[in-house]
Amino acid sequence: MGLLILLTSTLLYSYFHPGRVVDAQRLFILKDITLTIEPSKDVKRGTNVSLRCKATVSQSETWELRREYTVYKDNNLIYNKTSISEEILYPLGEARVANSGKYRCEINIDDKPQRPSETQKLTVTGLSKPQLRLNKGVVKEGEEITATCIAPGEMGSFFFYIYEDSNEIKEKQVSSNQAEFKLRFSSVNRRRIHCTYTVLITPYSVKSEESNNVTVSVKELPITIDLDIDPVTRVYEGDQLNILCKVNGLQHSDESVRLLLIQGIQILSSGLTNVSHSMVAQANYAEEFECKFEMGNVVKTATKTISVIELFSAPTLTVSPDEVFQRDDVTLTCKSESYASERLSEDELTYTLDPPQTPQTPSRKGVFSVKSLRIETNYTCVAEAMRIKKRSKTLTVRPKIFVSTPKISVVGRAILGQPVKILCQSDIGSLPINYTLFKDFVEVSTISINRSSQQAHFEVNITSPEDIKQYICEASNNHRHNKQPLSEKLNAIVIVPPSYAELMAVPDESGIYEGDDLYLLCRADGTPPVTFKWYHVGNNLPLYTNTSNDYSSSYQVPSVSKEHNGRYYCEAFNHVNKVVRSEEVTIEVQMVLWKKALIGGFCLLAVSVLVVVCVLCFRSKRGKRDGAAELSVKPSSPKSDDTLTVTLTHDTEVYNADKVVMDSGAAVSVWTKRPPEEDVAIDEESSMVTKEPDVEYTEVVHPRPVDPARGPADYHDYHGSVEYAELNGEQPEVNHYHPEVNNFQDLPMPVD
After folding, report:
1. Residues 294/266, Cβ–Cβ less than 8 Å
2. This model's pTM is above 0.85
3. 373 compared with 291, residue with greater pLDDT
4. Domains of the chain by start residue, with CATH
């Protein structure tokens, strides 16, 4: 069981670790693989270089492992070998620049791939000097020679270059260390030839030094070219020219030959050995003629230049007057400015006008009168003499359009006190147009319009609304006419900004009652439409906004109440956006009359009731003063049957007495005296109603017999009933005195 577990774990370990291999009972692992460049990674050309690939393997038993080594250069396979050795040696031999590159080594053990070695870079410096060889040193014009450039001992991919006197003339790419070039020389001279080469090494190249110089002598061929022109001097325009081109000394050759007669860029004629051509001399033709012979790459030429005298110059067409308007009569003049008087007289020159269908009247030679121009027309004229015709340049006559009557208007709005921009413009008219602004027929300024995108804008200041009607403008595009069209007078509305605002309340603020409709009328000056806004102080938002074409507007507040109290103002502005504000108006809503009358009635009723009460009080007091005041005192004890009756009048002796002692043995105390302060107050009150004195209260105390059972402590225990009367009309009232309440503090001391 343990052996099975060990075998299973070994298999799993080898599966997840590819560097470890299990083959039955054999186990191995690649410990390391290295690639080394011997003797060094940087060597000079000719050094013996070897690549050593070594693989270190650990194994469970000693047996021979089959190892397959592979060497790569720049990812290209260059060497493969199967061996049981731990290392292999791959000799590169004498190193060349072509051996430079990146190398790596890979190994398969028992057909199982292993990891590769690290990449090593080999750099070889130095190239051999190229050698140049020519098969001939002396050649004739156009003869072919072979040049061979060799890179001794080099290998790889090459580019070879051939130079003639330091100028590169040819190149070739080859995979061998030499290249051949075919050369031809077309001119007689001594040439120095050399070559170079370049070895291609990805991703760059290495260039060699220059080869040896080889001199080539080129001999001239015994061939001549003749070019004859008749006449060659004093050639006039219109003369007949005879031209002959030929080749002399041409021998038989396998090369193709060709002879060309050329004037400027035009080939007049061609042939093999002889070419002739006839033509009329013209001044506008090229003056140089060339005879050209070609044989292979050999080219021989002969050139001649002749001077052709112009018989007459090309005519010039002019128009008068310079400024032409529609329906104007114009004069066209066609004339050649110069001519060869020794060959041609002025009378021999004739002129014609094109197009011929144009109505024209020749007044003299070369002068044509054209009637009633209406549209744009192109004209040319032709001068002719001795069968030679010359045409003038095209003259385009564009008749100008008279400017129409200008229109004058205001740009934007005309605002009093601000600069006003006035536009003067005509619907039709050829440019340039001069616009002149006048105020009351006095020139203000002039603007010249030269492009259709321009406009004549004048800026003026308006001091009063009537000033605007004094402006007119003039348009002119014709300097030959004195009378220019004038516009009508400027008709525009001058916007006058408001200068004040006034707020008025209807009804006025002194007669506004609850429930009334209030009208706030705002007036302002300025040009309508005017926008009015009403405000209630304390509220930034307008109560109402209205735009009116009148100078005033109103805002209605229906059924006013106390909440409408406050200060109001209005603002006004028109298109100028200058805001004016009125003075504030204070609105105070008053109470309606019926409410005032109702409140007044209630007040009068209250006063009347008060007066009646006062009168009744007064009468009641006076009636009681005239009667006697009677007070009855009865003992509270049921055992006492004594009754004392005291009648007080103004004549009673005890009215003003402090104490009275009765014969029956009862002590009676009477208080008639008031404090002075109370007397003063009472007198003041009484004097407001009547002059008679008030009735004073009298209290009589009847002592109760002493109860022996109660003891001395109850000596002062009195209880009595007092009967008093007031003169205010009220009924007498009997008060029962409770000593437990007052503790008898207000009673007099009893008399023994």
Report:
1. no
2. no
3. 291
4. 28-125 (2.60.40.10), 131-219 (2.60.40.10), 224-307 (2.60.40.2410), 315-397 (2.60.40), 406-476 (2.60.40.10), 501-587 (2.60.40.10)
